[in-house]
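Re: the multi-chain job from yesterday

Posting the exact lines I submitted so nobody has to dig through the queue logs.
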Amino acid sequence: MIRWLRLILVALLLAAIEGTIGLIVPWEGARLDLLLAFLVLTAMDRGPKEGVWLGFIIGIVRDLNQPALLGMNSLSLGAIGYCAGRFADSVDRNSWKVQALILLVLGLFSRVFETFLIQVLQGHSTWDWLWRYEIPALLLTAVTIPLIVMTWKTSRGYQIKG
Amino acid sequence: MKGPGPHPGLKSLLACAILSMALLAGGDNVQSHIASVLASTILKPFQVALTLSPRLGILWLENRQLRHQLEERAWDGARIHYIEDENQRLRYLLDMTHSSPESLIVTSVLAREQSESGEVLYVDRGSTHGLTEGMPVISLARLVGKVDHVEPGRGRVLTLWNLQLRVSIRVGQPGPGGILRWDPSLGPDLLLEGMDLEESIALGDTVLTSGLGEVFPPGILVGRVVAVQPDSIRLIQEIRVRPFVNLSRLDDVLLMASSDSTRGGRR
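And the result, structure tokens for all chains:
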């Protein structure tokens, strides 16, 4: 229970950072997707079951915080949490390159799925938004966050593979 | 925490998918109702933090500016207070010298010294300015002491906190009289001895010079009674008096002189 509370608190903190400091755009309008990175890395570490529910909770938070369809983010992020937890069993989960690749692939999947869902359910297209902002944000997140986490873990004495 | 089956987390994924699709399938009204319930209960503190966090920096800056302004105002206030004090002191000196110009010499305190017998002050007027030994010294109508030694350019004053000085006083006006002297064991207070037990002395009573002994003129404020100790064996009461003057805050003092002796003094 305490572990879950800790995870939720971290997620809320990251959402607050995304909504405030994260608005200072670092690259062509793209900003770091901290919640996605947190979800993928946590799910890879803790398995698919925790990944699903953490993704669901983060999705609900994002649904409420963004003008989106309620349930859209919770569905896609829940699926991402599951997939990240499952993939972690068959790859080297401590390699930052693997983490970056999984983050990129799953993030891309979720963005495409959400854009498709918006087009189907609401009838208007956001593909242009996807190419201009979401893909650069994913690239930025996939490259930087695993590197930062690896650096942090190395500084604390963890054994990390390149 | 992994599930026990071959596909751990699959049930959770299904439950999550059902819940999410139920939310998606709900109409706009259902969605907005659920969103408002969630937002107003579970996520309310979080949203407050979200709206507050961008303002924290601004509030911090404002707070810093206000603190700075407060310090400036406090400094201004202290300066005003000092100027008011100085103004009051100068007005008093001016009034005194105007009201009795022939009997007062204004001097500045040069130094304060702890001699064997107690505290003494040195003032910047001497015999060439009309000072003579035995002159009463006051500050703001409060007794400070008397001149005990005079040189051409400066004078020495025995203060109330000196064993050589004894002041004939009375408590209240009119009231019982006695001799006031300094007792080192009492610290800043003076001792009034020999008062009969029958005399009614109360805490807070004002002590003034009586005029007996012809050293100090009558009616100069000396201090206030701060303790009364009856001695049933000797049938007297010992009274502690706290003087009004504070030597550490003395800048200028007045010397009360006869008309003849003030010629040449600063007025």
